[in-house]
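Dear U.,

For the methods section draft, I wanted the exact inputs and outputs in one place so we can describe them consistently. I've listed the two proteins in the order they'll appear in the manuscript figures. Please don't edit the token lines directly; just add comments below if something needs changing.

First protein:
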Amino acid sequence: MHIIVSENVKTLGMLAGQKAGELIRAALRKKGSADIILATGTSQFETLLHLVNEPDVDWNNVTMFHLDEYLGLPETHPASFRKYLRERFVRQVPLKEYHLINGEAEGRNECRRLNALIRSHTIDVALVGIGENGHLAFNDPPADFQTDDAFIMVELDEPCRKQQLGEGWFNTLEEVPRQAISMSIRQIMKSKHIICSVPDERKAVAVKNSVERKVSNLFPASILQQHPDCFLFLDHASASKLSPQQSIS
């Protein structure tokens, strides 16, 4: 795992966006196309802002998959992740294809649809974050490390739902959905390269657990320790609880 600590969230986003752009351009040069995964949430604001402005990316040959989405939430809701991606990415670049998760569809059928779509794609670059509870995508602890299904239905635990409330996406905890569709841990780990953007002091404990604890489904993002090319972009606040011996760029 490559750990890069920036002074602030804007610099974090710039560096993460630049690295993602570099890796996407490399995939385009090598095979003429690129397949990417995008996350959402406040952790991705700056990263996506910089990524859409990366130079010399032939977006016409890029296919995007969507990491996770609430079940039962209309796209018109401010917290809708497909709304988020349409506004911050899909409308900003001329993608070859994009596959958003329809949270208003019947969950099992939507998972089957997405699983069939992603089966023929090898993901070059996945952009992800880490939740306050250590989740990766919406794989809350104890996460399923065993399923081979690319997309699965999951139950959201209370710490996850409280995070969404605290970030201002909902007015009350009762409004936060209890179920979601999430890309699975194994599918995320199949990505050739992973860019993980994690700003803010409220994520510091989760970052420490993900980097320093033994890999465990109780700390889902700890699985990133086993990925051959994962870049973890932090700011000083999110890195504040890491032990001094951690190798940091």
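Second protein (the one for the lower panel):
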Amino acid sequence: MLVAIDTETTGLNPFVHDILVAAFVPFDESIEPLQVFVESRDLTWSETAYKYFQYYKEDWEAHKKPANEACANIERWIAHNFQEPITLVGHNVGFDMGFLRALAYEGARDQIEGISHRSVDTHSLLYGLYAVDWIPEHALTSSGAFEYFGIPVDGIATKELYERILLQL
């Protein structure tokens, strides 16, 4: 089962920075998405991360959980909704998966149960389309791709981007 992932973090390095929010949007629309807010131990936020944080600061402060509880919430959601491990779809999904692995470690786990080690990266797919001159270079970034395909930036943007890329193939 494919599930779009989007994370917000305190910076770019999962060894130094923390995941703050993880949003999971199933491609099966009968399954409710999940958004998990995670407490941060990181005091070295990047300027960009702090700027984006202001958009969801109130929700984060009201709903943040320690890493072990955040992992447990994700694992319960997966176990309740899926029969087999989920495959994550994301723009530069290696970034998201790196932070999920760091979250698992902080939550006293080797991994978050139910998440496959396999993934689908929309940036790689876009680069293939760019390489054969089907899309312009500015569409390689997530914001450029959302603009190029006319996708509003919201919780389901990555899912919609993946579906639009498939229509190009």
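Candidate sentences for the figure legend, describing the second protein: The radius of gyration is 16 Å. The chain has one domain: 2-120.

Thanks,
Y.
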